[in-house]
């Protein structure tokens, strides 16, 4: 008879977050079928409807399409980044509230040796896993359409999705963690996610907008994500601009992280 | 195991715990008895190292929750007042994932899950979704979950609140077995029968303070009489108020308590007291003689009942 292993405190925050892998894996095993189908079908529908069919009517040349040779090549990276954002919105709004308010799962987690930072990090890991999967499907679905200038560009554009995901995930998580009820989510989706989706350069170059609206669009995180993704898939990288995009998205992710730790910490330490 | 001195907890300007001293020894079953809002749950959350201490000293297993929270939580078990089970996964999966939070190896967790399911009599429901369990089963699952790390101290916040009598007895039976195995139990309750059945020693809390401390029997001996004669008078009666009636029997008992629906006469011999009441020509609609309980202790100390 061997001695029973005692419970231990994690040695660092990543080790603690790793203890949540089984929790997320078991939950995902129940839901993966639905999300797998939609993550394959949705991009395909968008690409066919907007890129191919609508794109047929778009006669604009590379000069008007940020260097893209076709509307399809222009819209594909935009849709990829927008999909990363939408996946994050889905994973860090209602699920976060549910784990605070409805199921109280977080309270169970922090009664164990795990702490708030590890709980958040574990969930961010799951969000990245989901974005990684949906982006991989999207990137592969797009390959036959010939929208990538280079293979390495397509791969880097894929990696950028993790940064886009973190830039949205930490602030939205923080926002959700402090809410008393779910009513603000409807506003967040209608006044936040949908306008970002429509006006951040995914569907048309933001230079088409009024100057003041263009300035506004340039300030949004999705535009930074879209533009970075696009310059990589089209092989039109401007290093200086790319670095600004990376810095912007990284800063947002880091600030959101501290905000999220504070908001969830306060919420749970009653 | 647990040492608190001058322990306080405030939420803004509201003081939930106003300076309490508590020492829990290894192997004992210790209770916090008090009505809702007495500060029991706030105390428990501080002891569970999830709620920061506002003032005073608190040591759990010799460790300070402010600096060693994860180390403390790794060695204790917590059964919260509200179930925090994941309702979208199965009974077995709930235990399994929780074991993983403690850094336990997968194979060992699986073995423990089987043992614990057996212990809380949920083996047959192992693959059921939590949503489909009754309240009593959920409680037992929560207790099983709190035991996954073989804790040295088990904290139970209102373990049977909201359960029907039969389900309560099943939970009590399991807790009693844990106590026999030498697990230190710390529980809060507003049920005096729960406190009497399960605890070796308890503190009575009211409005954030400890108003008495001792074993259930000692507390009863110290603050109450051996027996209580309860007198119920018809609502109509002869128009006399309970206060007026109390005045007529005052000298027959050590103490008389006036409740909205009855009078309590604290006395050494209840039957004799009731006989004397009848001799005075008073005709209560119903009478009852019983032993003093912790409820009477609480009434004596605070002037209020535990459950209202």
In short:
Chain A is mainly alpha-helical and about 270 residues long. Chain A has helices at about 15-20, 20-55, 70-90, 95-100, 105-110, 115-140, 150-175, 185-200, 210-220, 220-235, 240-270. Chain A has 11 helices and no strands.
Fold and architecture overview:
The complex is a heterodimer of chains A (270) and B (308). Chain A has 270 residues and is mostly helical. Chain A starts with 12 loop residues before the first helix and ends with a helix. Chain A has helices at residues 13-18, 21-54, 71-92, 94-102, 105-110, 116-142, 151-177, 183-199, 211-218, 221-233, 239-268. Chain B is 37% helix and 26% strand. Chain B has helices at 40-47, 65-75, 91-101, 106-119, 135-146, 165-180, 192-198, 216-223, 242-249, 270-279, 294-302; strands at residues 2-11, 14-24, 29-33, 55-60, 76-79, 153-157, 184-189, 201-206, 209-214, 227-232, 255-258, 263-267, 286-291. In chain B, the strands form 3 sheets. Chain B has a 6-stranded mixed sheet with strand order 5-6-7-3-8-9, with helices on both faces.
Primary descriptors:
heterodimer; A: 270 residues; mainly alpha; 11 helices; elongated; B: Rossmann fold; Alpha-Beta Plaits; 2 domains; six-stranded mixed sheet; four-stranded antiparallel sheet; 13 strands; 37% helix
Helix % of chain B is 25-40%
**Number of structurally distinct domains of chain A:** 1
- Unreliable stretches covering 5 or more consecutive residues of chain B: none
Order of helices and strands of chain B: EEEHEHEHHHEHEHEEHEHEEHEH
Mean pLDDT of chain B: 90
- Largest protein-protein interface: A-B, 31 and 40 residues
* Secondary structural class of chain B: alpha/beta
CATH hierarchy class name of the largest domain in chain B: Alpha Beta
- How many angstroms separate the termini of chain A? 41 Å
**What proportion of the residues of chain A form beta strands (DSSP E)?**
under 5%
Radius of gyration of chain A: 20 Å
Class from helix and strand fractions of chain A: mainly alpha
CATH topology of the largest domain in chain B: Rossmann fold
């Amino acid at each position: 008879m061997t001695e029973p292993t005692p419970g231990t405190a994690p040695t660092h925050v990543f080790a603690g977050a790793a203890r949540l892998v089984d929790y997320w894996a078991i939950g995902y095993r129940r839901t993966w079928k639905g999300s797998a189908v939609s993550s394959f079908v949705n991009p395909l529908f968008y690409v066919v409807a907007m890129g191919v069919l609508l794109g047929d009517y778009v006669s604009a040349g590379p000069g008007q399409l940020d260097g893209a040779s076709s509307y399809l090549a222009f819209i594909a990276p935009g849709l990829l980044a927008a999909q990363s954002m939408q996946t994050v919105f889905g994973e860090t709004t209602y699920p976060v509230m549910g784990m605070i308010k409805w199921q109280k799962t977080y309270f169970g987690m922090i009664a164990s040796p795990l702490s708030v930072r590890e709980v958040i990090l574990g969930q961010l890991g799951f969000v990245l896993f989901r974005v990684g999967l949906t982006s991989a499907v999207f990137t592969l679905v797009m390959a036959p359409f010939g929208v990538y200038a280079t293979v390495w560009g397509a791969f880097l554009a894929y990696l950028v999705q993790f940064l886009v995901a973190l830039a949205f995930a930490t602030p939205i998580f923080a926002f959700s963690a402090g809410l008393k009820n779910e009513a603000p989510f409807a506003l967040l989706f209608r006044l936040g996610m949908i306008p970002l989706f429509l006006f951040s350069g995914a569907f048309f170059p933001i230079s088409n907008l009024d100057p003041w609206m263009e300035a506004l669009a340039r300030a949004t995180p999705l535009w930074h994500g879209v533009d970075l993704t696009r310059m990589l898939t089209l092989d039109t990288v401007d290093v200086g601009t790319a670095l600004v995009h990376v810095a912007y998205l990284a800063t947002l992710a880091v600030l959101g992280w501290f905000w999220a730790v504070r908001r969830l910490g306060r919420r749970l330490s009653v | 195991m647990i040492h608190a001195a001058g322990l306080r907890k405030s939420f803004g300007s509201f003081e939930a715990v106003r300076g309490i001293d508590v020492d829990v020894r290894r192997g004992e079953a210790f209770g916090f008895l008090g009505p809702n809002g007495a500060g029991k749950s706030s105390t428990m959350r501080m002891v569970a190292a999830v709620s920061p201490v506002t003032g005073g000293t608190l040591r759990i297993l010799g460790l300070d929750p402010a600096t060693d929270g994860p180390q403390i939580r790794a060695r204790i078990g917590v059964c919260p007042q509200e179930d925090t089970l994941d309702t979208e996964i199965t009974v077995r999966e709930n235990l399994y994932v929780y074991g993983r939070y403690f850094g336990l190896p997968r194979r060992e967790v699986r073995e423990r899950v089987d043992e614990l399911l057996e212990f809380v009599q949920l083996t047959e429901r192992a693959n059921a979704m939590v949503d489909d369990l009754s309240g009593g089963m959920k409680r037992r699952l929560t207790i099983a979950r709190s035991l996954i790390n073989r804790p040295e101290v088990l904290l139970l916040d209102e373990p049977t609140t909201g359960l029907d009598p039969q389900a309560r007895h099943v939970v009590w039976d399991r807790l009693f077995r844990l106590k026999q195995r030498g697990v230190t139990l710390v529980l809060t309750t507003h049920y005096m029968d729960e406190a009497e059945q399960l605890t070796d020693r308890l503190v009575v809390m009211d409005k954030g303070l400890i108003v008495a401390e001792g074993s259930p029997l000692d507390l009863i001996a110290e603050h109450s009489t051996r027996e209580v004669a309860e007198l119920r008078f018809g609502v109509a009666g002869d128009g006399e108020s309970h206060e007026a009636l109390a005045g007529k029997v005052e000298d027959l008992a050590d103490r008389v308590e006036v409740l909205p629906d009855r009078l309590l006469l604290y006395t050494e011999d209840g039957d004799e007291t009731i006989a004397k009441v009848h001799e005075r020509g008073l005709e209560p609609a119903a009478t009852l003689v019983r032993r003093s309980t912790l409820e009477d202790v609480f009434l004596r100390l605070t002037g209020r009942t535990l459950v209202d």
